[in-house]
Amino acid sequence: MFKGILIEKDDAGYRAAVRDIDDAQLPTGDVTVRVSHSTLNYKDALAITGKGPVVRKFPMVPGIDLVGTVESSTHPDHRPGDAVLLNGWGVGEVHWGGLAQKARLHGDWLIPLPAAIAPLQAMAIGTAGYTAMLCVLALEKHGVKPANGEILVTGAAGGVGSVAIAILAKLGYTVVAATGRPQDADYLRQLGAAEVLDRAQFTSPGKPLGKERWAGAVDVVGSHVLANVCATTQYRGVVTACGLAGGMDLPATVAPFILRGVTLAGIDSVMCPRAERLQAWQRLGTDLDMDKLGTIGHEVGLAEAIPLASRLLNGEVRGRVVVDVHR
Which of 179, 175, 188, 166 is nearest to 148 (CA)? Predict the structure, then answer.
């Protein structure tokens, strides 16, 4: 038996609670992992609260991230004792995820834990930080250099935004943070933001084109915020889009793209190919100041993650939430 958060839906309703789970209930897979830590992400919060159609089958263990040690394996790439991590691949949605003390998974989904990153650090980074690194890699791929100008990060006090700021600042970019939480301005400056803006200036319907400012951007909000970011991006600037915290719609025009040659680069972390995952995690080991992870993340136990999910959806949680599944 092991403990985990189990989401159930039946005639009695939708509920999430910490349960004792029998090993025989684990789903199919060729690798069994003894999990040490997981995380609480926006998608996990939607799953736990039932406020979004994230969970596709029941019962379900949420948790789109996990790190741990291989307990048993029939997969050629993984042996008992190996330290491994996982992000995405539909775990916590269609396959049991990481918010439990054990997980049975398909070995192709797992990657080795980089030597430069400790297990706790890996989850302080988590899907949010890995997504932030994918955004940075996309900016680099499209030729955005520190000398080109400012990089805007929206949703700056959240997990993706926090790690993106820390990485970009270490790489020499001038980072501007947009947030709806002015009380977090000092925190964002500690991470490396040169300036902190109120997100209110991006949330209302804007003009098709505004004054050019951003050489690049990392957007986790979508909707009017993303439209306004695109409209104020420099000629041939690059905007990476990786979230929908403000809405799935995009009330924009084609003007930034056909008049300024702006690139809108979509970032998907869930099904990202293995080679790109490995690159992103190796770069995280060198390009993220690990000393800042203590500022970005805080640790909770399994039971604490359930009430925290609603606070995360309400925008009341700063940075990253690491879940010690043995607490």
Answer: 175
What are the start-end ranges of the H helices in the chain?
Answer: 42-49, 119-141, 159-170, 185-191, 200-203, 223-231, 255-259, 274-287, 293-296, 302-313
Three state DSSP letters for 18-41: EEEECHHHCCCCCEEEEEEEEEEC
> Do 134 and 238 fall into the same domain?
yes
CA angle 163, 188, 285 (to 5 degrees): 25
Q: Find where tokens 């003390």 sit.
A: 101
Q: Are 44 and 63 in contact (CB under 8 A)?
A: yes
Q: Is residue 272 part of a domain?
A: no
Predicted confidence (pLDDT) per residue in 84-114, tens digit: 999 999 999 999 999 999 999 999 999 999 9
Q: Which residues contact 114 (CB under 8 A, 6 or more apart)?
A: 281, 282, 284, 285
- 10/108 same-domain check: yes
pTM: 0.91
Kindly state whether residues 213 and 308 are assigned to the same domain. no
How far is residue 38's CA from residue 98's CA, in Å, rounded to a whole number? Answer: 6
Q: Report the distance separating Cα 66 and Cα 69, nearest Å.
A: 10
Q: What percent of the chain has pLDDT over 70?
A: 100
Yes or no: say if 63 and 42 are a contact pair by the CB < 8 Å rule.
no
